[in-house]
Design brief:
Elements lengths: L1 E3 H10 L1 E2 L2 H6 L2 E2 L6 H8 L6 E6 L7 E7 L4 E7 L2 E2 L3 E6 L1
Antiparallel strand pairs: 1-4, 2-7, 3-6, 4-8, 5-6
Amino acid sequence: MVTTQQGWETALDKGYHETESLATEGFTHASKEGQVKGVLERHFRNQNDLVLLHIDEQLLKAELKYELAPSVNELFPHIFGRLNIDAVVKTTPL
């Protein structure tokens, strides 16, 4: 999952990461490692201060579903709830 440094710092303070899409779409967008480059190109172009959150799916408290994104014809992981920060096993600055 990609977020901003500020978004990650806020999550660390709260104990969870919550995105706008959870309120508007009912889930948090995530991606598999091989999908990150395309996600960055499509949704985060020219943005700085980004962080890649590496998530252990087994540690998620919220439900995880893989759903088709028709625009790119790929299955993406969607988290149906807040991302508990203890499911984030590593962070990588982008």
